[in-house]
From TrEMBL:
Record-linked Gene3D superfamilies: 3.30.300.20, P-loop containing nucleotide triphosphate hydrolases
Keywords: Cell membrane, Cytoplasm, GTP-binding, Membrane, Nucleotide-binding, Ribosome biogenesis, RNA-binding, rRNA-binding
Its job: An essential GTPase that binds both GDP and GTP, with rapid nucleotide exchange. Plays a role in 16S rRNA processing and 30S ribosomal subunit biogenesis and possibly also in cell cycle regulation and energy metabolism.
Protein name: GTPase Era
Membrane topology (UniProt): Peripheral membrane protein
Domain KH type-2, first and last residues per copy: 197-281
Region listing for G2, in residue ranges: 43-47
Source taxon at top rank: Bacteria
Gene (UniProt): era
Chain positions covered by the region annotation G4: 124-127
Length: 296
């Protein structure tokens, strides 16, 4: 872990917006050369980490949200549930709107999320709108309950980005940075490995199981020809443990082999992956467990 920080604020910022709202353009503009692109390969269900922005005062970890919003369809609570939980795993939600898009539709989506985390409405592409339109959009969104802050930007023309960063930092919690300044540490590799295993659980099981589960990588050893990884899948109840293991160990084998393939791709090395399932009743409500599992 870095030790040169005397700051600091650090946290996860989730970017949420319809396709084409300008998410990629914005990230590139915000992070520029300072970006440590982590991996586009890691497409985990809760966080898809896109990059870090680290200064001596803060570390922002940008990720985006799974699930495409298609406001033409009626929004199902359950579908939005996954998006909501992803957003609420973050410290700050950035709700990106193309100013030329349909504001009512965007509002319907944002409102349905009933976010509890601080959110910033970011009106993008203001280079394509006149003053009246920008003012009207500001008036429209700033009165909404999810809108803690509102910033108007042009990601393409790189306008008002400092203002946006200031708004983000003002909502970030204080805390030590999660990642080293310059490179990925073993620790973050562990983090991603855990996320990959978690992703497989999301893919293979019904809704309740993934939300009751976390993954803790307890061993990460470089051997001569491979990396030996041991991870615990933590569940809350014995019944969940049997579901994860499956008949004759079928499911846990599947999680293991799917995860191993992705981990090998991510690390670029052969991996020996050993998975265990542990029951920790109410781990989600237990501070010590949460801390141990990296949710402190
Ligand atoms: N005029 C203008 N165009 C922008 C701005 N930001 C993004 N764009 C354009 O909008 C289009 C979509 O931008 P992306 O950054 O790819 O959008 P995205 O949200 O990442 O899209 P998906 O990857 O489909 O989710 C591109 O053609 C961008 O050049 C802006 O501030 N002004």
């Amino acid at each position: 872990m870095p030790n040169s920080f005397y700051n600091v604020k650090a946290g996860f910022v989730n970017i949420f917006g319809k396709p084409n709202a300008g998410k990629s353009t914005l990230l590139n503009a915000l992070i520029g050369e300072k970006l440590a692109i982590v991996s586009s390969k890691v497409q985990t269900t809760r966080h898809r980490i896109k990059g870090f922005l680290t200064t001596d005062q803060y570390q922002i970890i940008f990720s985006d949200t799974p699930g495409i919003i298609e406001p033409k369809y009626k929004l199902h609570e359950r579908m939005m549930g996954a998006v909501k939980s992803a957003l609420e795993d973050a410290d700050v939600a950035m709700l990106l709107v193309d100013i030329n898009d349909n504001w009512e539709e965007c509002d319907a989506v944002f409102s349905s999320l009933r976010l509890k985390v601080g959110s910033i409405v970011v009106l993008n592409k203001i280079d394509t709108a006149d003053k009246e339109k920008i003012e009207a959009a500001k008036a429209f969104f700033s009165s909404k309950s999810y809108c803690k802050k509102l910033v108007t930007i042009s990601a393409l023309a790189q306008n008002n980005l400092q203002e946006l960063l200031d708004a983000i930092v003002s909502l970030l919690p204080e805390g030590d940075p999660f990642y080293a300044e310059d490179e990925l540490t073993d620790l973050s590799e562990r983090f991603f490995v855990g996320e990959i295993v978690r992703e497989k659980i999301f893919e293979l099981f019904e809704e309740e199981i993934p939300y009751q589960t976390t993954v803790l990588v307890h061993e990460f050893k470089h051997k001569s020809t491979l990396i030996k990884i041991g991870a615990n899948i933590i569940v809350q109840r014995e019944t969940q443990k049997s579901i994860i293991i499956g008949e004759g160990g079928k499911m846990i084998k599947k999680i293991g082999s799917d995860a191993r393939k992705d981990i090998e791709k991510f690390l670029g090395q052969k991996v020996f992956l050993e998975l265990f399932v542990k029951v920790r009743p109410k781990w989600r409500e237990n501070d010590l467990f949460l801390k141990e599992y990296g949710y402190s």
